[in-house]
Amino acid sequence: MLGIVETKSVSPVFVGRDSELAALTGALARAAACEPQAVLVGGEAGVGKTRLIEELTSVACGDGAVVSIGGCVEIGGDGLPFAPFSAALRGLRRRLPEEIASAAEGQEGELARILPELGPADGGALGEHGRASLFELTVRLLERVAADRTVVLVLEDLHWADASTRHLLAYLFRTLRRGRLLVIATYRADDIHRRHPLRPLLAELDRLRTVSRIELSRFSHPEVRGQLRGIFGDEPAPHLVDEIFGRSDGNAFFVEELAVAIESGCRSGLTDSLRDLLLVRVETLPENAQRVARIVAEGGASVGFPLLLAVAQLSEDDLIEALRAAVGANILLITADGDGYRFRHSLVREAISDDLLPGERSRLNRRLAEALEADPTLVRDDERTTRLASYWYYAHDAAKALPVVLLASVEARRRYAHAEQLRLLERAMELWDAAPESVRACLRPPDDTDVHPRTDDGASSPLRYLDLLCEATVAARSGGDRERALALSKKALRVLETEADPLRAAWFWTQRSLLVQDLSRGDGWAELATAQDLVLGLPPSAVHASVLSDVASWGALHRPGANSLAAADRAVEYARLVGAENIELNARITRGWLTTEAGSIEEGLAEMYAVRDRVVALGNAAALPLLGRVTINLPSTLESVGRSEEAVAAAELGITLCHQRGLTDKEAWVRANLSESLFSLGRWTEVQAAIDEAARIAHAPKARALVAVRRAMLALGRGDFAEAESQVALARAVFGPHDPQPQHVIGPTRLALVSAARQGRLAEARAEFEQVAAHGFPPGMQRYALPLLCSVAGMEADARGLPEADAGRAAVLASVREQAKRLPALVPVWRAYDLLLEAELARADGIVAPKLWARAAAAFEAPARPYELANARYRWAADLLAASAGRAEATALLVRAHTTAKRLGAAFLVEQTELLAGRARISLATTPRLAPAPDPQADAVSSLGLTPREQDVLRRVAEGRSNRQIAEELYISPKTASVHVSNILAKLGVSGLTEAAAMAHRLRLFSDLEPTHP
Fold first, then answer.
1. CA 571 to CA 549: how far, in whole Å?
2. What's the pLDDT score for residue 248?
3. 842-845 — which CB contacts under 8 Å span 24+ positions?
């Protein structure tokens, strides 16, 4: 046996990379200054990425930062879900146990999916809602831990990352916004071929201004000389530098391997083969050390000592001797936790693995699997099933592999690692026919999922191939691979052509309906109608209730009316009969929404509030989709019927609830709805802040499209027509032509129409109207249709008398009147628009009718619509002046309209009022009046004119909070908090936070607060 030789292959001197290290230390400094940083470090295998990171971590530790490293784990070629994040968070927990516990408090059950040491995981939500929540909570955990200290998180070897890790990393890089956190991710650039799954992620991250990228090149000739000087401890001979530089081509790892080979006398044995070069030192190890190296190469990215001892068939002393030889030769390293071994460089592991014979690889995997089955404690709990599934699969034993692969797929689903779940399910389908019937007969569907219909016998029935297709379809959709999900659903329906299973077929058709909508292949109705036909006449079941609920929800979005409401009623009834509460609650949201828009306002809203309260009370992860939906739909429905103040309150609570559960994309929808209600109420400064915050966190395409609609709404109000048209075009590009929901069509049409008309493009504006009017307005669309009809009548009135406007004018106005007949004005705000339409139609017919405008103005006072009120007053003033009646009244109306328009920033209305005043020679200058003294009996805070949200902010100002602290406590952005503070200062007539706090204490606005003292 050869003696053990300690081999020095790494230069103790850091060579080159001055600019790259400077970039990293600069990012570290910015992170320490509370500017979170994200850096990608790429380079070919062996070029020196790890050494650069080691140098940076040395600097960071010297500066007092906490550094934690996690690497992507390969087990038999398979990635372990969230492996680098789990490892890095585990390292942080070892260093900062109390801080991690505090940051995770209240969310341990969710975060345990990534960091199992926090305790048992909660029962999960299905699909993307659960994953989105987990991602947001993970980001929030890191931000909290890094609030008071600099934290450096290093995620290595992204080229091996599983899809769930890639998705989480993308989310982290997009949303990271606070804390002293530096995240560095490394990857092998030479492995990223055109179809590599990391390639689109890198392209996406390159577009983020918050992410910087460093690409390492090979060493130059002088740098190789410096590296060799460090390795040999002396100046190398010039011919040796030339030879090694020529053969290594400047790759730092190859330089090390060549240097060691030459130093140990193996020069003559070197070949030009990369694999042979990497195997040179391995082959000089003792036989037992080589055997151990082969086990570690096949066992995964790292293998623990107990598992090695069970598999190596060596005595403990012999194993330790073999490991000492491999570590001494710098081939293996001890893992950071001190419990196992890994290769110093993955290139060596890959070379050893590639050198294994097929039978040798199968035998090694079988021994690994048998050892792990005999003693499950040989690996960590969170890795055990995944490792066992991989070992049995690569041992080519279908009977053993199939059950454990299925178990691993269930674990992946519970961790929201849907892409890995799909890969495992597809592997199970591959193994299905090869596994003996006796094995398949013992398999049962998982007992904690309701994503697909069960057979009558429930869990006692054997697992079927169709069950795998059901699970795989949902996994693919939840993991974002909708094309694959559609293909799987088609495959399942082909299988069902030979089986009489209408419930299962109906379930797959509902999946196809969702998928064609997601993929913009259609509106999904044909698929949903097929599902409805399949369940027709069948006894009540969860699938039946779910189909009816989906039909009602689809109808609410596309064809609201009696049929959709009836479907919602039946869905609620069937769900109650079979005890499917989540389906029942979902159907009740739709029923409440449709009932409200049908005119039974209080009944419908009461149902929606009741559902929200029940969903909040449930408080479990399975209710997350319902929480997201009700917090979006309730404020929207309130706004629809003109209860904007109530809508703001509901939206603010919804934002809090979504933020607490990590539903970031749903929060973006709620903020977008909030911006609409704030716009209606004339709080346009707050609108901008709400839109900006929604835009920052919106990731789903339709959420971004809704943000674009809100931007267009505000831009049009402010008279920025170019911006309005740009945002409408952006929204329409996302909504597309394949799924024309009225809410996605009518609103943008009005914005585009008004913008075109105000710029003199009447024909274009008319074409917009004619296109949408051809389809008519479904019941319940008054919130969108009535403002549109008012705008069309207004543009025809403005164009009256223009020669080019005569042709087609009568037809447009007739269409407006005909459409208006089908839109009953059931609530005050709809009645106000109805009166506004009557006045605009009279103006379009050339009738001067001040009384009509007076009625419209009065109608807009109660729902608190300052912009519409100001516009009505402007038109009222114009008709009074045209009728030569009431000049003083016209002046007062014009002054009030102009004042409101200026306060809002409604540039077009400001211009129109000023033009009218100029023509009528009316001065718009006003003398400010003193505000009336507040009622002595009125609440002191309310008497100051503060909104409920401003009162919340003022309380925190009085407590000495900063804008950032106020934002964090109220779950709003710092910018929104700043807007609230500015409004408060203006209303109180003070110049700063200190004066505002002093006034709050002096007036004892908050009796429970003690005065603060320096």
1. 5
2. 75
3. 843/793, 843/794, 843/797, 843/800, 843/875, 843/879, 844/793, 844/794, 844/796, 844/797, 844/800, 844/813, 845/813
Q: How many residues does the chain have?
A: 1014
Q: Quick check: 679 pLDDT over 60?
A: yes
Q: Span 119-143, mean pLDDT?
A: 78
Angle, CA 379 vertex, CA 378 and CA 383 arms, to 5°: 150
User: Taking the chain, what is the end-to-end CA distance rounded to the nearest angstrom?
Assistant: 78
From the CA atom positions of the chain, what is the Rg in Å? 34
State how far the Cα of 301 lies from the Cα of 74, in Å rounded to an integer.
Answer: 5
Question: How far apart, in whole angstroms, are the C-alpha atoms of residue 588 and residue 568?
Answer: 7
Considering only 125-134, 478-487, 616-625, which range has the smallest mean pLDDT? 125-134
Neighbours of 959 (CB within 10 A): 16
**What is the Cα–Cα distance from 103 to 988, expressed in whole angstroms?**
37
> Which helix (H) or strand (E) covers residue 156, if one does?
strand 151-156
What is the SS3 assignment for 69? Answer: strand
Gap between the Cα atoms of 803 and 516, Å rounded: 47
Could you tell me which residues come within 8 angstroms of residue 258 by beta carbon, excluding any fewer than 6 positions away? 244, 247, 248, 270, 277
Q: 112 — phi, psi (to 5°)?
A: -65, -15
Average pLDDT of the chain, as a whole number: 86
Q: How far apart are CA 82 and CA 105, in angstroms?
A: 21
Q: What are 794's two structure tokens?
A: 């207004």
Gap between the Cα atoms of 922 and 919, Å rounded: 8
188-to-42, 45, 90, 171, 737 alpha-carbon distances in Å = 6, 6, 24, 21, 41
Give the tens place of pLDDT for each residue, 798-839: 998 888 888 899 999 999 999 999 999 989 999 999 999 999
Q: Using the structure block, give the residue that is written with the tokens 């002191």.
A: 940
Least confident of 62-71, 470-479, 702-711, 976-985: 976-985
Upper half-sphere CA count for residue 906 (Cβ side, 13 Å): 26
Tell the burial category of 815 from Cβ atoms under 10 Å away from its Cβ (0-12, 13-18, 19+). middle
Residue closest to 107 by CA, chosen among 621, 608, 835: 621
Give the residue-averaged pLDDT of 441-468: 69
Cα(923)–Cα(887) distance, rounded to whole angstroms? 12
Extract the tokens encoding 488.
């799987």
Taking the C-alpha atoms of residue 525 and residue 507, their distance in angstroms, rounded to an integer, is 14
User: ∠ CA 743-747-749 to the nearest 5 degrees?
Assistant: 120
Which among 459, 463, 454, 539 is positioned nearest to 504, based on CA atoms? 454
On whether the CB atoms of residues 455 and 415 are closer than 8 A, the answer is no
Asked if residues 11 and 17 have their Cβ atoms less than 8 Å apart, the reply is no
Q: For residue 186, what are the β-bridge partners?
A: 41
pLDDT band at 3 (very low <50, low <70, confident <90, very high): very low
Over 50: is that where the pLDDT of 272 sits?
Answer: no
Q: Are 725 and 768 in contact (CB under 8 A)?
A: no
Q: Two tokens at 525? A: 């109705």
> What is the per-residue pLDDT across 695-721, written as a single tens digit (0 to 9) for each?
988 888 889 999 999 999 999 999 999
Tell me, what's the pLDDT at 277? 65
Region label for 115, one of left (φ > 0), alpha (ψ between -120 and 50) or beta (otherwise): beta
Give the span between the Cα atoms of 85 and 161, in whole angstroms.
11
Q: Which amino acid is at 1013?
A: H
CB 893 within 8 A of CB 872: no
Mode of pairing for the β-strands spanning 74-75 and 151-156: unpaired
Please choose, from the candidates 927, 855, 850, 923, the residue with its C-alpha nearest in 3D space to the C-alpha of residue 891. Answer: 923
pTM: predicted TM-score of the whole model, two decimal places:
0.77
Q: How far apart are CA 241 and CA 221, in angstroms?
A: 8
DSSP string, 351-405: HHHHHS-HHHHHHHHHHHHHHHHH-GGGS-HHHHHHHHHHHHHHTT-HHHHHHHH
